């Protein structure tokens, strides 16, 4: 395809009687090609030898070392972005796309982030929360246009602990030890464990400092409850609680009954055949 340029053509200077040379104000790769200068008078038209113009560079080339990142709730995470640009890039920002396709622009003025600048195009989220989860794109621009990275997926591991107990009612004999098992599953560090005992319309909190009551456990390492010498007054509904950085969750209540008797809690019925075998 041949394009003819005249004085006043968009993006050019020169091409005039007093300055016949051609100046391309902001050359881009599409300006590459073979150029020939023409001049005419009453005698006719003459042209120069053709000259080849090659415009190097273009929009920024953006690469990322990883397309997936995972971070724990409350931790810092950096998503790296590497920009190679000729001509130099003058603008950097990021876009975040959520699960429903909504897009949000992020720049170095966005609260809670660092980076995202010409000097440091990578994006650092200072305190990751579930709202930061989504897909991210790094973008950089120069006079040639705008380049963008592949999509980056960020996953934030965050959630309340899952706390469970055996839901079968427990029966123990007074004066003996009683054990209530508690299981905790959490992607984050468990910061605190405690129990609540509901009895006679009141609530008693049991924690790791309740050893004076003859109770041990109730810690992150050992969340279960061991009553070393159970008494009837300890009967009631027990609930296990666990706290991580997201918040506190609890188990369903479990009923503990302490009976004041010497009889077996679960007596076994035994039938003895006293008939005389010889009489058969």
UniProtKB/TrEMBL annotation:
Gene3D superfamilies: Immunoglobulins (2.60.40.10)
GO terms, molecular function: axon guidance receptor activity
Limits of the Ig-like domain: 60-155, 161-255
The name this protein goes by in its record: Ig-like domain-containing protein
Domain of life: Eukaryota
PANTHER family on file: CONTACTIN 5, NEURAL CELL ADHESION MOLECULE 1-LIKE ISOFORM X1
SMART domains (alphabetical): IG (SM00409), IGc2 (SM00408)
A GO term from the CC aspect: axon
